[in-house]
Write a structure and sequence with these properties.
homodimer, 260 residues, alpha/beta, 10 helices, 8 strands, 48% helix, elongated
C-alpha cells in the first residue's frame, strides 16, 4: 500500500500545520472534517481539499484517516464514522494506540511533538515525529510518510509516548507558566517583559548542549537561604506565587542534593 | 571623570564574561582579585591584568572597582578592603545599591541579566544591563560604559532590580528545573532528551513574540481533568514531581481563570 489520499478529522492548530506539511510533501489531502464549518473550510482552502462538518459526509475511499481531535472527542468520532477496516492514525501524545482496536485492524499513531499556535509558522523538518503502528507494514508506511516531512522520525511505544507527553507538559506548559509569572512580576513594577527575553532564550539554548542538571544556577541550587527568604517576602502579596516559589525551590534543592 | 582602569573583585562566571567584554571594548582591566589564586590568575591572564588573592594587595589607584561576588561575601570584602571614596559598583540582582553607603560616596550597580556558565560563550551585546548610581554623574559614566558593551542598557531602581531578579529566578532557574524533570522522565523510559529540545526552543521563541498568557497550551489551561489525573498517576513513583505537577497545574488554572 502507498498512502496517497488523506482525510483529516479535525482542523485545529496541529491539524493545520500537519496538513500543510503533508501537502507540501506532495500528499493529496482530499477532505477536511471539522465540527465547525468555518474551521473545515478554512483549512480545506489552504490544502485544496473538500470540507464537511457531518460525519456522514466523510469520504470512504481515502488511504489514511488522520484524527487530530481532542482526546475526549475521539471515541465519539470513531462511533459516528462507522468506517470499517480503514487505516486510522491519531496525533495525540496521551492516548494509547489501542483506542482504535475495535474499529479497524489497520491503525497507528503519528505524534508530532511541538506546541502549535495558528499565528506562528513552524519548521516541520525539525519536529520530532513519534510513530507507532499495529503491524510492521503500517509502521514502514508511517515511517516513510514521516521522513517526507521531518528529519527526526522515531518509533515509540504507547507507554513511552505517554511519558514523553508528560515530560512535554513540564518542559513546555509549566515552563511557559514560569514565563507568565515573570511577566506579571515585571509589569507590577513598571518593567518591560523584553528585559527577560534574552535570559529566556539563553536558558533554552543552554540545555541544547549542556544537561539541565549541570546548567542549573540561582539561589535554590546554592541553597542561599537569605536570598530565598527575601524573595518569599517580596511575594507576600501573591500567596499563590509564594507557595510555588517555595515549592519549586525545595524541589530543586532535593533533586540536586539527592544526586550529589 | 572617565573610567579607564578597572579592578575586579571576584573571578567567577559573571566576572569572567564581563571582564572579557570590557577588555574587548578597550577598557583596561588592571587587576583581578579572587580568594582562590588559580581563579584570579586564570582570569587575569585572559585580560592582561595583575592578580592577587589578598585584599591588602588590591591596587588603590583604579577608577572603578567592580564587585562580582556572592551576596554574602560582599560585606566582608568591603570591610577588608578599607578603600575610601573610590568608585564602587556591584553586579548583583538582589542587593540594593545602599550596601556601599558606609564605604564611599561614589557607588552604583552594574547588573547584567543573564545566566552565565564558563563553558558557554555569550554575546554581551544582547544582554540587558541594569544601571543604578548614587549621582547623575556616575549614572552617566555607567550608562556610557554599558553602552560600549551592550545594546540594551536600562536605568533600574534597587526595588525594580530586586523584582527583576525574582522574575529571573522563575523564568530561568525554575524553567531549567522543569527541563531537568523532563530529562529524568525520559531517561526512565529509555528515551533521549533530544526529543524535547525543539519543543523547549519553540516554547522560548514563542514568548519572544506572543505574551506568555496567550502562548499557553496543554491540559492545565484547558482544565482537562482526565489527562491531568492520568499524568498524576504516572507520577506515583515520584511523589515530589507529582506534588509539583498538581501544584503548577492548579496555578496555571487559577491564573487563567482569574483573568478570564
Amino acid at each position: 500500500m502507498m498512502i496517497k489520499n488523506i482525510v483529516f478529522i479535525g482542523a485545529g492548530n496541529l491539524a493545520t500545520h500537519l496538513a500543510l506539511a503533508l501537502k507540501q510533501a506532495s500528499y493529496s489531502i482530499c477532505q477536511i472534517y471539522s465540527r465547525t464549518r468555518l474551521s473545515a473550510e478554512t483549512l480545506a482552502k489552504q490544502v485544496d481539499a473538500d470540507s464537511c462538518c457531518d460525519y456522514a459526509e466523510v469520504r470512504r475511499d481515502a488511504d489514511l484517516y488522520i484524527f487530530a481531535l481532542s482526546d475526549k472527542a475521539l471515541p465519539d468520532a470513531l462511533e459516528a464514522l462507522q468506517l470499517k477496516n480503514k487505516f486510522f492514525v491519531h496525533t495525540a501524545g496521551s492516548l494509547p494506540m489501542s483506542v482504535f482496536e475495535n474499529y479497524t485492524s489497520n491503525y497507528g499513531v503519528f505524534y508530532p511533538l511541538q506546541t502549535f499556535s495558528k499565528a506562528r509558522e513552524v519548521d516541520f523538518l525539525k519536529i520530532p515525529l513519534c510513530i507507532e503502528a499495529c503491524s510492521q507494514d503500517l509502521e514502514s508506511e508511517l515511517m516513510h510518510m514521516g521522513g517526507e516531512i521531518s528529519k527526526s522520525v522515531q518509533l515509540l511505544s504507547s507507554k513511552q509516548r505517554k511519558q514523553l507527553h508528560l515530560a512535554a507538559v513540564f518542559t513546555c506548559n509549566f515552563t511557559n507558566h514560569m514565563y507568565h509569572i515573570g511577566q506579571e512580576l515585571l509589569q507590577e513594577k513598571g518593567m518591560d517583559f523584553d528585559l527577560l527575553k534574552p535570559l529566556i532564550l539563553e536558558t533554552a539554548e543552554k540545555v541544547q548542549e549542556i544537561p539541565a542538571k549541570a546548567a542549573q544556577t540561582g539561589p535554590a541550587v546554592r541553597f542561599d537561604e537569605d536570598v530565598i527568604k527575601a524573595h518569599e517576602e517580596s511575594l507576600n502579596m501573591h500567596p499563590d506565587f509564594q507557595k510555588l516559589y517555595r515549592f519549586v525551590s525545595e524541589s530543586i534543592y532535593h533533586l540536586h542534593k539527592n544526586e550529589k
